[in-house]
Amino acid sequence: MLRYVLRRLAWAVPTLVLVTFLVYVALRIGTNPVESYKRINPRATPAKIQQYIDVNGLDPNYVRGYFRWLVNFVTLDWPRSIKGSREVWPQLKDALANTLRLGTAASAVGIVAGLMLGVFAALRPGGRRDVAVNTAAFVGISIPPYVSAILLQLLFAVYWSRWFGSTLFPTSGVYPPGQMGFDLGLMLKHMVLPTVVVAIQIIAVYSRYMRSSLLDVLSSEYMRTARSKGISERRVLFKHGLRNALIPVVTIAALDIGSIVGGLIITENIFSYPGMGKYFLSAFGEGDFPLLMPWMVIIVASILIFNLVADVSYAWLDPRIRLD
Amino acid sequence: MASPVLQIRDLKVTFSTPLGPLVAVRGIDLDVSAGEMTAVVGESGSGKSVSFLAAMGLLPKSATVEGSVVLDGQQLVGASAKVMRSIRGRLMSMIFQDPLSALNPVHRIGAQISEMLRAHQHMTEKAARSRAVELLEIVGIPQPGDRALQYPHEFSGGMRQRVVIAMAIANSPKVLIADEPTTALDVTVQAQILEVIQKVQAQFGTAVVLITHDLGVVARVCERVNVMYAGRVVERSGIHDVFDRPTHPYTRGLLASLPHAGADRLVPIVGFPPNMLKPPSGCAFRTRCLHAVDACGHGIPELQPIGESMTACVRAKEVGVST
Q1: Is A308 within a domain?
Q2: Rg for chain A (alpha carbons), in Å?
Q3: pLDDT, one tens digit for every residue, chain A (324 residues)
Q4: Backbone angles phi, psi at B315, to 5 degrees
Q5: Rounded distance, CA A107 to CA A43, Å?
Q6: Which residue from B248, B235, B246, B254 is spatially nearest to B39, judged by alpha carbons?
Q7: According to the model, what pLDDT value does residue B320 have?
Q8: Among A209, A170, A193, A156, which residue's Cα sits nearest to residue A267?
Q9: Mutate to test the interface with A, among B50, B97, B104, B109 (most CBs of A within 10 A)
Q10: Which residues of chain A are within 8 Å of residue B93 when distances are taken between CB atoms?
Q11: Chain B touched by A320 (CB under 8 Å)
Q12: Smallest CA–CA separation between B307 and chain A, in Å?
């Protein structure tokens, strides 16, 4: 197992190089970093522009340029952003922390609630509960986050303050403007609405996954064997059913969590939540190459790592899968 | 004959389907005595598995069970889920057709057997584990200590069926229901599995019900045979009577369609089994029977003695007992 993980991690390095190269090429074609620099710094001297080209690896030859960028990236000699000439890592670090917080909360709430609803629905297929959960799931999947976000903002901020005099949950940011330092209560309050918006989607999708996976398992022969042993129905369900039903769901969950780092673009923008999605949109809008490349590396690395997590958890849950 | 441990009287099983009620078992009587191996023979859909799933309380909720199933003095039809749980696996247990899917793929063999033990006996986990290893040895699994720690996918089909048997006999049940235990296996393995079943029957004095459509299997191991057709028992005989002097036209048809030395070709039973949503009036077999007359359409025939056998055919005496 350990050898397998190490081998996969070793393989992740060339994969990361290849994918970041493709991303590098795509960004150079798509955003034209040199032009963006000139547009934002119209009075830059040719020497300044040449220096920008050098540190960012924007050589006309893509391969040579990419390796120049790679060397700078790996030696942590990161160029500053085009706009405002700020250091990249502090911004990126904050964005990453904010998104991880939101993503973790939403995934935890969403997956746990989704799985529970899925089990609840599968126990009586076709029954009233099942129909209720299915209908709710379809509604949840069908409502895009920008609709549910705006509805929630209307309800908990606009109408709430009209009815009760104050807003219940703030609608933007991580802290109120002007707040300095750390305040857990305020932070959680700000996270509530965006978490709910993301969690609605996750709940809807995972209740469907869990329902169909558990229904599959419930109709299998070994469940009848388990029942024929005379053990309690609860034990049949949890010990024999759930473990098997979770195998495919956990795999999907690992993959989904891996992509959440870059996947909350819409929600973060509606709530002005300074995470990875918002970071990406503003950087992309400016064609800010020095900001974009490290962002891409983090997204790609996260997906690669969670692919590995998915494989390992699959083998861990299912003895039939062997990794070596 | 010893008094029966399992006594089934007028058992009816009805499934509610979108097309209306489907009566899969239409009133059967059956006795199973201790230490005896009884066969229940019939084609797919004749209700043979459903009858015993009903006795075990393992049918889905869409099924209604009527009549009487008495096991060791206890009425099982209408018994509470709790009572049924205490009976399943302790007094009566079941071996299923497909050993490849009957075991839970994510639990170790030993754990699956010890779960059966601990469900009905006060045992420590450790004691149950070592008893599980003994049981694996009884059913003829080599290196049972190591095998107990393996998962089902590391076993062959025949070996898995041995595991299922070990599990079924773990609490020395009075009745063991073997539902097509050899159908999914190679012929050579079939013989071994039958031997294992015979061995545990002798060792534990268990009454065994062998549900099968394979008359060859029946001839090898059973003492008494119940032939089922369309949810009814149509003939009940000793093993020699069934093969030498079959009394019901359906039984004769079954035997004629078996391959045997000297026969030029097989003689199949014409037609198809009846649609159980709308079974024919009277004898359900009359639509395929060579001897059917108008009288066969009036009332479902009851079992009546013909020689040593019991048969449910109104013309049994006239048609005679020769093949």
Answers
A1: yes
A2: 24
A3: 788 889 989 999 999 999 999 999 999 998 888 888 888 888 888 888 898 888 888 888 999 999 999 999 999 889 888 887 888 899 999 999 999 999 999 999 999 999 999 999 998 888 899 999 999 999 999 999 899 999 998 888 888 888 888 778 888 888 877 777 788 888 888 889 999 999 999 999 999 999 999 999 999 999 999 999 999 999 999 999 999 999 999 999 999 998 888 878 899 989 988 889 999 998 998 888 899 999 999 999 999 999 999 989 888 889 888 877
A4: -105, 10
A5: 47
A6: B235
A7: 61
A8: A193
A9: B104
A10: 228-229
A11: yes
A12: 39
How far, rounded to the nearest angstrom, does the alpha carbon of residue B155 sit from its chain's CA centroid? Answer: 25
Which of A228, A233, A320 lies at the smallest CB-CB distance from B56?
A228
Written as six digits, the tokens of B266 are 């097989």
Per the DSSP assignment, residues forming a β-bridge with A310 are none
Q: What is the pLDDT of residues A74-100, one digit of tens each?
A: 998 898 888 878 888 999 999 999 999
Q: Is the ipTM of this complex over 0.85?
A: yes
- Please report, as a single letter, which amino acid is at residue B305: P
Chain centroid offset of residue A151 CA: 23
Q: Of the candidates A69, A146, A89, which has an alpha carbon nearest to the alpha carbon of residue A279?
A: A89
Q: Report CB contact under 8 Å: A224, B96.
A: yes
**What does pTM read for this prediction?**
0.84
* A229 three-class SS: coil
Both tokens of B165, joined, read: 């048997």
Average pLDDT over residues B308-312: 89
Amino acid letter, residue B75 = Q
Six-digit token pair at A217?
């398992």
Give me the number of domains chain A comprises. 2
Interchain contact, A222 vs B104, CB within 8 Å: yes
The closest CB to that of A320, out of B94, B153, B164, belongs to: B153
Ramachandran sector of residue A183 (left: φ over 0; alpha: ψ -120 to 50; beta: rest): beta
> How far is Cα of residue B258 from the mean position of the Cα atoms in its chain?
20
Which residues from chain B sit within 8 angstroms of residue A233, using beta carbons?
81
Do B211 and B179 contact (CB within 8 A), yes or no? Answer: yes
CATH value at residue A216: 1.10.3720.10
Which residues are B237's β-sheet partners?
A: B225
What is the extent of the structural domain holding A42? Answer: 2-74
Compute the distance between CA of residue A69 and CA of residue B142 in angstroms, rounded to an integer: 63
**Burial (CB count <10 Å: 0-12, 13-18, 19+), residue A140:** buried
3-state helix, strand, coil in chain A (%, to 5): 75, 0, 25
Give the fold, CATH level 3, of B4-222: Rossmann fold (3.40.50)
In a domain, A323, yes or no: no
Write the pLDDT tens digit of every residue in A5-46: 899 899 999 999 999 999 999 999 988 888 888 888 888 888
DSSP 8-class letter at B297 = G
Alpha-carbon gap, residue A116 to A135, rounded angstroms: 16
Preferred mutation among B17, B103, B106, B167 to probe A, highest tally of A CBs within 10 A: B106
Q: Distance between CA atoms of A122 and A124, rounded to whole angstroms?
A: 5
Q: Which of A228, A230, A318 sits opposite B106 (nearest CB)?
A: A318
Residues A68 and A93 in one domain: no
| Domain ranges across chain B | 4-222, 228-319
Structure token digits, residue B118: 């601990």
